[in-house]
Amino acid sequence: DKSLYSSTLQKLPAPVFMVFYNGTEEMEERTELRLSQAYEHFEGEPNLELKVMVLNINAGHNEELMKQCRMLKEYAQYVARVRGYAGSMKLEEAVRRAIRECITEGILTDFLRKNRAEVEMVSILEYDKEYEEKKLRQAEYKAGEQAGLKKGEQAGLKKGEQIGMNRGLAQGIVETGCAFGMPKEMILNRLQERLHISAQRAQEYFAMFSGQQPV
After folding, report:
1. Chain centroid to CA 133: how far?
2. pLDDT of 134-180, one tens digit each?
3. Dihedral through CA 191, CA 179, CA 20, CA 189, nearest 10?
4. Which terminus of the chain has a lower count of CB atoms within 10 Å, N or C?
């Protein structure tokens, strides 16, 4: 009922942005994403910022949240069963078995009974899409990593020192991994494997070439 043209300040509901993550990559319990992380050549305080809280809802994570939201907990249990069974049987069979067991054991029972056919179809399509995208990302990352390593080796060898070469290789691994959106943990593991360095040193290289502070 308020005029949009009033000269007084109009109050707005305070927004909260959240993402519930149930992918297969390793993810912390809670992670804050900021829009400014995507800004190029940026320093200081951003003029425009957006903060998004990412909550890992895979089975076994954020237990307190799961206790407060039964449906979210049961959804995580259903997804975990589908993924577990898909490792040893056809996807269609894995989905159907997970649905049968969940209905019997009181997990999302009412929802699954009412929407069984739709859940079956969506689960199969989403799992296939996730699997194919993961394979594509891994293939792209390996190709990009090789190019990055070659670039890093050239940069390091010009200095004629092992330290310089390690820095060059590390830069290639980190920049390529970030460009392809690979998880931080995967990049850190690559650094340790390729350069034979400690976890702490890998963290330092990651911070140096990604612009993020070491944990």
Report:
1. 13
2. 666 666 666 666 666 666 555 554 444 445 557 777 887 888 777 76
3. -10
4. N
